[in-house]
């Protein structure tokens, strides 16, 4: 039966992609360019928040379309640095979610005390506040001298802030409140020096922290960790990538090592669920299961 002109027109318009499809297509091309040129793989980051951040980046760089961003990514490494900065959300604070630190103090430290040397990995440490908070807790529990804390992120800009350990003085009041709620045993002021209107974390804490570049998607596992803290990072990944990173954590953990996730993250729907037992459900603290 011959196709009428109206039908032909109908077929043609069926093939037209919606604006959302086009944006999605452009984003896929952009992410391929990023992977090809710089070996950063954002393809399994959750699309909604990734799309928002790409549009923020467009606005800040005064580029009209995602398609126009692609040659800039390919040929301009400085532009890629800006893009990378925009892609990672580095919001953090000292003793964030104080109850998590209180629970670590009350339920995990006793086990850590049984080791002569304690290895800890903060994955996705952003600007370092979380690692300094744990160092303070471990100091107060008499454990810091036995600890090596590896604090890693794939954002070099954040890592350099973390290494300097200098934070804005206006944040200190909030950090002090968190420290007290987390069961702090001294005064938060004992752990920093006021300097040019900022707070510089003391060297005694820094000595036990190694800040290093590590990309959770492509870099190797760490060996024999007694505690891994990775909070508010997996939330940006899709399920497949979450499982991959959780498997990396399982491999990196010592026999009966501990894993701490963020309050919106859980092992509940992960294929790693059976490899861990829950120690404190609300605080997302897990222990590697022991089958022998
Ligand atoms: C919201 S911050 C979390 C900071 C801190 N853990 C906390 O909860 O306060 C998320 C961090 O994850 C880092 N990140 C995202 N993807 C990563 C990856 N593939 N490898 C390493 N770090 C990553 C970001 O650069 C950012 O610093």
Model description:
- The chain has helices at 5-15, 19-38, 47-60, 66-75, 77-87, 98-112, 129-140, 156-164, 172-181, 203-206, 239-252; strands at residues 118-123, 147-153, 166-168, 192-195, 198-201, 209-213, 225-230, 253-261, 276-280, 285-288.
- With 292 residues, it is α/β, with parallel strands linked by helices.
- It has 2 domains: 2-87, no CATH class; 98-288, Vaccinia Virus protein VP39 (Rossmann fold).
- The strands form 2 sheets. Strands 6-2-1-7-8-10-9 form a 7-stranded mixed beta sheet.
- Strand 9 (276-280) and strand 10 form a beta hairpin.
- The chain is globular, with a radius of gyration of 23 Å.
- The structure holds S-adenosylmethionine.
- S-adenosylmethionine (SAM) binds at residues 88-92, 96, 124-126, 130, 153-155, 158, 215-217, 231-233, 262.
Please give the alpha-carbon distance between the first and last residues: 71 Å
The whole-number mean of residue pLDDT values reads 93
Ligands: S-adenosylmethionine
* Helix percentage: 40-55%
Radius of gyration: 23 Å
Could you list the spans in which at least 5 consecutive residues all have pLDDT below 50?
Answer: none
Globular, elongated, flat, extended or rod-shaped: what is the shape?
Answer: globular
Q: Can you tell me the number of structural domains? A: 2
The strand order across the widest sheet is: 6-2-1-7-8-10-9
> Which architecture name of the largest domain does CATH use?
3-Layer(aba) Sandwich
Biggest beta-sheet profile: 7 strands, mixed
CATH class group of the largest domain: Alpha Beta
Which structural class best describes the helix and strand composition? Answer: alpha/beta
The percent range for strand residues is 15-25%
The secondary-structure element order is: HHHHHHEHEHEHEEHEEHEEE
List how many beta strands DSSP finds. 10
The fourth-level CATH homologous superfamily of the largest domain is Vaccinia Virus protein VP39
Helices, by number, come to: 11
What is the CATH T-level topology of the largest domain? Rossmann fold
């Amino acid at each position: 039966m011959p196709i009428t002109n109206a039908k032909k027109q109908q077929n043609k318009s069926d093939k037209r992609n919606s604006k959302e499809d086009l944006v999605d297509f452009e984003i896929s091309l952009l992410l391929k360019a990023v992977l090809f040129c710089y070996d950063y793989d954002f393809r399994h980051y959750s699309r909604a928040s990734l799309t928002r951040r790409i549009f923020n980046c467009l606005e800040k760089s005064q580029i009209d379309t995602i398609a126009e961003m692609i040659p800039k990514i390919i040929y301009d490494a400085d532009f890629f640095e800006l893009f990378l900065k925009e892609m990672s959300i580095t919001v953090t604070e000292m003793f964030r979610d104080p109850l998590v630190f209180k629970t670590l103090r009350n339920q995990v430290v006793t086990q850590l005390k049984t080791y002569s040397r304690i290895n800890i990995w903060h994955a996705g440490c952003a600007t370092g506040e979380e690692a300094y908070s744990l160092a303070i807790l471990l100091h107060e529990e008499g454990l810091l001298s036995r600890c090596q804390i590896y604090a890693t992120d794939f954002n070099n800009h954040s890592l350099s802030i973390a290494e300097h350990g200098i934070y804005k003085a206006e944040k200190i009041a909030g950090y002090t409140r968190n420290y007290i709620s987390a069961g702090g045993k001294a005064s938060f002021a004992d752990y920093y020096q006021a300097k040019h209107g900022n707070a510089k974390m003391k060297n005694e804490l820094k000595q036990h922290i190694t800040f290093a570049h590590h990309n959770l998607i492509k870099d190797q596992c760490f060996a024999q960790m007694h505690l891994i803290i990775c909070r508010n990072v997996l939330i940006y990944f899709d399920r497949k990538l979450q499982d991959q990173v959780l498997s990396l954590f399982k491999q990196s953990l010592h026999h009966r090592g501990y894993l701490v996730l963020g309050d919106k993250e859980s092992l509940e729907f992960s294929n790693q669920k059976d490899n861990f037992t829950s120690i404190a459900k609300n605080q997302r603290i897990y222990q590697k299961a022991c089958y022998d």
